[in-house]
Amino acid sequence: MLQTLRVGIIGDYNPESRYHVATDAALGHAAAALSISLTPSWIPTPSMERGPVETRLKSFDALWCSPGSPYKSMDGALQAIQFAREKGWPFVGT
Amino acid sequence: MGKTQTVRFRPGSLIHSAYGRGEATEQFACNYGFNPRFRGKIEGGQLKVTGVGPDGELRAVEITGHPFYVATLFLPQTSSTRENPHPLIVAYLKAALAFRTSAERKL
Q1: Is A41 exposed, middle or buried (0-12, 13-18, 19+ CB in 10 A)?
Q2: Cα A83 vs. chain centroid, distance in angstroms?
Q3: DSSP B10-53
Q4: Which of A31, A44, B29, B78 lies 20 to 30 A from A16 at CA?
């Protein structure tokens, strides 16, 4: 059985955005190379405005801050980034 | 439209070891300039510049002593293919796998 990773993508998913589509695809490429099953979840930025943000984020094994600012909620995005930094969650921001 | 540029990585950095080499050609979005989301990270004071452009322009940062914390102004996801997954993203997922089962995952 494959190991499964849960990746939370901080961002307001837009299917018209080639960067968003590329983010999901690239995660799939890397997961396949590592023979793991990966479930990406896009986390709407407004959902992280009202704390505690860790309740929303702690179930993910890694967080990704997506391209495509301005976000609907810059404050929500920054709270998630701060969580990753302060709590030591694997994080990439591109 | 976006542009392509060579990015050089600081030896000994996480991003350098993820790529396994000192530089790479990467793609940038049309409006890749200063992004406010970097503000909080820079103000945190823990960030190290670990990727620069041809004239020393900031292109990537990371935090030392963190399981994996990397931010880039370029878009690795846009050059990834199934045949050649992007090495930074592979390194990120490896860190996530290790974190998933580690004692550091306290929440």
Answers
A1: exposed
A2: 12
A3: -TTSHHHHHHTSSEEEEEE-TT-S--THHHHHHHHT-EEEEEE-
A4: A31
Residue A53: in which H helix or E strand, if any? helix A53-57
Summarize the confidence of residues A7-32 as an average pLDDT: 96
Q: Which amino acid does the sequence have at B93?
A: L
DSSP A9: E
**CB contact residues (below 8 A), chain A span 55-74, against chain B:** 58, 61-62, 64-65, 67, 69, 74
For B16-51, what is each residue's pLDDT tens digit? 999 999 999 999 987 666 555 564 555 457 889 999
Which of B40, B41, B70 shows the shortest C-beta gap to A92? B70
Residue located via tokens 């796998």: B97
The model's confidence at residue B106, banded by pLDDT at 50, 70 and 90, is low
